[in-house]
Amino acid sequence: IPSPSPLAFAFTATAMLIYQTLDNMDGKQSRKTGSSSPLGLLFDHGCDAINSVFGSAVWVSALGLSPATDQWQILALVVAPMAAFYVTTWEEYYTHHLILPIFNGPTEGLLMGATLFACTSVLGVEYWHGYEWYNNVFGPYVFAYLPGRITSVIVPADGLRNCDMVPIITMLGLGQEVFLTKGLPMVHKFGIRCLRELFPMISLVVAPILIGSADSTILERHPRVCLHVIAGIFVEAVTQLMLDHMTSRPYRAVRPCIVPLWAYTALVWFGLIGPQMADELLISYQMFLVAHLYMKFSVIIHEICDLLQIWCFDIVTPYPKKNKQA
Predict the structure, then answer these.
(1) What share of the chain is helix, strand, coil (3-state, %, to 5)?
(2) Rounded to whole angstroms, how far apart are CA atoms 48 and 85?
(3) What pLDDT is stored for residue 326 in this prediction?
């Protein structure tokens, strides 16, 4: 498959920088103009959640990763931003404060993503399939000090490509944020029971690994469908966590959209269905998620607008007042 034009990645880098700027300005602007509302929060963070999978998909393309041979790299790049987003929302659910680390996704993460796209537009996709990072930096200064048993397992005979190092660095940064910066302090403060709200995100990590282990060609057969399913489950779970935080309601970790995921995982893992049936069920699952999310968000937006007496995307037109009957 030919790689996209370098201009496409240059445009993506520019668009991501614009997105980063606007994403960091919208909250301050709404508070300055007095137009902030729970609906705005839902739209802001909800669109960020939806956008995460598109950003990850473009990263996969920019690194020239193949669904046939680079499955763990793709899973790491897709799941890592989602996990960081979900854990931050989970922390906000308990603490009622959105706490971002000094090095965070909305600022430095997007800046690094834009830099990656800019490098691809200048150096080409082929650069990421070289071994410069490993041969000149990580090999002699990092992996050389690890036990031989570890390096023999994780490092191929010819070394790690540049496009392998990107997801490895991403996962190391994610682990530090999830476990050390947020996970352990949350357990210490709120107890181990607070971990149950992480079940949807844990499912999005474990289930694809099990499915890919049982059927290694499913991502190659339907890369877009797999991304859509993961994105749909993530968006449904994290936006519901936002809503329950806004309304002070308990969060139901076992989401209705996740139950079919584990049923599908069991069918594939135990070999109860063949590739054709697995494909049909996966596509049906995707269609179910799209319909469910459309209906859910339509109802939520309508209810919030009616409760706050505002229009969606319109802060100028007055909302018609309801006639109060005696």
Answers:
(1) 75, 0, 25
(2) 9
(3) 43
